[in-house]
Automatic annotation (TrEMBL):
Residues 141-150 have a biased composition (Basic and acidic residues). Residues 141-169 are annotated as: Disordered. The lineage of its organism: Bacteria, Pseudomonadati, Pseudomonadota, Alphaproteobacteria, Rhodospirillales. Residues 151-161 have a biased composition (Basic residues). GO terms for molecular function: heme binding; oxygen binding. Gene3D superfamilies: Globins. It comes from the Bacteria. This is Hemoglobin.
Amino acid sequence: MIDPTPPVTYAAWQPKDPSRDLNEEDITRLVHTFYGHIRDHDTLGPVFKTALHDDWGPHLDKMVDFWCSMMLGVKRYDGRPLPVHVNMPDLKDEHFGQWLALFHVTTHSLFTPEVAGIFMERAQRMAQSFRYAIALHADRSPAPAHDHSNGHSHGHSHGHSHPTGGCGCGGGGGGCGS
């Protein structure tokens, strides 16, 4: 007699990647919902409005491409986000905690906890990289990740040097071109 069950393969033992069920429509909904919250935020709204010259459309399109690249593996995003953020004079260290809190609320309102967790892990890594680069440009250390209330301004000027080969931002070693 022939056994009708298929043989167990290696793939059957692999955990399912919950982000595999995502599509571009999901990411577009996330980006538009999230940046709607950003626009309404008392602190972050003005920072983004100034940086974007109140022209949100191109930014939203770029963020859809960015998150599709991060989550779906598509190769449409063409940008260098670190230099852009380093060059935002109104961007302060405490804004990252606020941004992450809004992103957490938004991802968890739209997706399963597993998928929201994948988004959050990537967002937290990116935010930490930006915080360190901005702090290096300002010649100070970022606040600890758990403390977003220290009130330090982490603006920067581009008169700095990179004696150790750069901070990864490009000045002397790879990104902002300072």
